[in-house]
Amino acid sequence: MDYERAVLSYLKEKYSTEGWLQRDKISVKDALKVLILDPLKASLGAQSDSSSFHIRLTYSEASDEALGVSKTTHESKRRKTDAENGSNCISENSFEKVYEPCIFSVHCNKMPIFFSGRYFKYSRNVSQSRWIIDDERMGEASVEEILGGNILPACLGDSYKFHAAGREDIDVRMLGSGRPFLIEVQNSRQCPSEQSLKEVEEKINNSEKKLVGVKDLKCIGSQCWAMMREGEAEKQKQYVALVWIARPLEEKDFNSISSLKELKILQKTPVRVLHRRSPLDREKIIHWMKVEKIKGHSHYFLLHLCTQAGTYIKEFVHGDLGRTTPSMGSILGCRAEIIQLDVTDVKMGDE
């Protein structure tokens, strides 16, 4: 604070003819902005306004080691005495003599640009985000790396961040209409054209392994982040699950399941995620369900269902040791296990 007051005092003395600078309530930041900005605009031949392109000028004092200068014992004692006496006055000697110019650096960067779209995940061995445990990769790849790794070069950016409307487990496929996502690219040096984005889409969709797909890839404004989070809270998700039960499926089971509409269930935090999630009770809604037979397999069936966002589907099927009630097992009165799970649709709040 003392240095700031000293700088302001120095500026007022140096620019004594500037009436606006002599006001009592003016900050060093505002003063420097006025004193530096106009000459800078003249030098660069550019205007200063609200823009996604930012220029940061940094002035810093050279280190004592670099200058070979150290404080004298007298200076140290004087400052210590002033501090003990509670003195915080600014004198003409407040600035030490400078023997070398300060260090000046210029940093240019652009505000992030955003890309939206929907992704598909076709593999049961691909995580949504990069997943490393004890220096070992979990899964063959990640949606984050495949999408971001293809979009970033098209922008000539420094880095990217991946955001999605919800997530699926590594062993769950994302099919149907795809899951909405955002890619936030930091300090991009170019904004790719629509044609360039189409080429990125084609490259991802035509990759040899076909682990991930993408559609509707486009560049959008920064307000999209808030819009996606708002829609995510209200979204519905549709699934298809391959289910095994301990007894043969009966005709009455079809009606007992499909007749359940807007079914309220209570889910405690699943055992499998207790190590990273708070132990809470969550009330969720199963909007509708229907059963599809699998010919020649009476103990297996496909369960199609639409649920509220945040419902744990695996636990709804097997009950999670009684931590989810009711469950498919309790509805059918027998043991039930989930073999495979696919997400078939993600509907946002405005859809």
Task: Give a verbal description of the structure.
With 351 residues, the protein is α+β, with helices and mostly antiparallel strands. It is 29% helix and 32% strand. It is built from 10 helices and 16 strands. The strands form 4 sheets. Strands 3, 8, 9, 10, 11, 12, 13, 14, 15 and 16 form a 10-stranded mixed beta sheet that branches. It has a two-stranded antiparallel ribbon with strand order 1-2. β5 and β6 (136-137) form a beta hairpin. α5 (143-155) packs antiparallel against α6. The longest helix has 17 residues, at 28-44. It is elongated and about 95 Å long. 19% of the residues are buried. Mean pLDDT is 84; it is low at 66-78.
State the main characteristics.
351 residues; alpha+beta; ten-stranded mixed sheet; two-stranded antiparallel ribbon; 16 strands; Pus10-like_C; tRNA pseudouridine(55) synthase; Pus10-like; isomerase
Decide which structural class fits the backbone. alpha+beta
Shape: elongated
Low-confidence runs (pLDDT<50, min 5 residues)? Answer: 66-78
Query: Measured on Cα atoms, how large is the radius of gyration?
Result: 31 Å
The percentage of residues in β strands lies in: 25-35%
**Sheet with most strands:** 10 strands, mixed
SSE series: HHEHHEEEEEEHEEHEHEHEEEHEHE
Determine the number of helices (DSSP H or I, runs of at least 4 residues): 10
Distance, first to last CA: 53 Å
Approximate helicity band: 25-40%
DSSP strand tally: 16
* Mean pLDDT across all amino acids: 84
